[in-house]
Amino acid sequence: MERKVDGGGTMNCVHAASPTAPPVGRQAPVRGPQKSPSKGHRWPPGLVLDTLDMNRDMASQPKEPLEDPKKQSFWMPGNYARTVQRTDQSFQACNDVTACFLERAKVEKLYAQQLSQWSSKWKAIMDSRPVYGSLMRAWQCFFASTERLAALHSSISQSLVAEEGERVKTWQKETFPKKLFCGFKESYDNKTSFSRAQKPWSKKLTKLEKVRLAYHKACQKEQAALEKEKQVNDNPALSEEKKLKTAEAKERAAEEREREWLPPVKKLKRKRRNQKGKESRPVMIGGVKVRALYDYVGEEADELSFRAGETFLKVEEEDDQGWCRGVLSGGKEGFYPANYAEVAEC
Fold this sequence. Notes:
By secondary structure, this protein is α+β, with helices and mostly antiparallel strands. It has 6 helices and 9 strands. The protein folds into 4 domains: about 1-60, no CATH class; about 80-175; about 205-260; about 270-345, SH3 type barrels (Roll), CATH 2.30.30.40.
């Protein structure tokens, strides 16, 4: 949208997309006849206000979170190193400030010496010249001001080294205490704390990355099987046996993809199970028929093992740790993860 002010002080507003259409939102009031945009169309003041309201509403809308494809977020494992390095970088910044003051002090000192030398040289020259009266006093004031300026720059040089530089060094020594063989104590403490806090998350993320890669490969394999099946079905010269094998390969690829991700299971500590907790859960008379969603191999003697799609009975409701009691078709009774099975349809 382009805004112009004509000679009479009236604001003209031309919309880039549609000169005759008001912006999205409230309907702009039309006051008086409308003129052609090419001749300087005068839009009503209400249109300008509506446009400003619309822009403000669009600016206040929440933005979507930015993606992090390169995993540069602070919360990714190991990325806390940038925060830990700030202590070392701050210590080095203090050294840089001290070095900067020292160089500036050298410049000030050199300038003061040059002014003194220049003043002494030309003062001796002017003393040997036939200068009298007001001209002599002017030269004397000129050289006196030069000496005062040289003394000022010399004091600045000494202040930068003896006062400001020492103040920065003292603050640096008090703020960054060192720990023997480990650099700065603050860096060591931060690194240790961050590492301990991110250790479980790092393990889970590594496991998730492995599962993600395996799932991606399984999806690629399934897609290849689908494309191959399509090519086989489109070729009438191939036998039914070939088509049947291709369909079976596609089904195996689909089953493999579904088995790549198993939901996490909170392990039940059998030694801490007590008889009181066992009696407090309701027991189902006759049981409920459930179907396994995933393969599971029991790790304890009182856990069941089954394959995906197998049906059995659930005879006890889920406990507070996420386990149910069930009975397999062979009669074996034991525990299984509640999120590994669902109620079977009748």
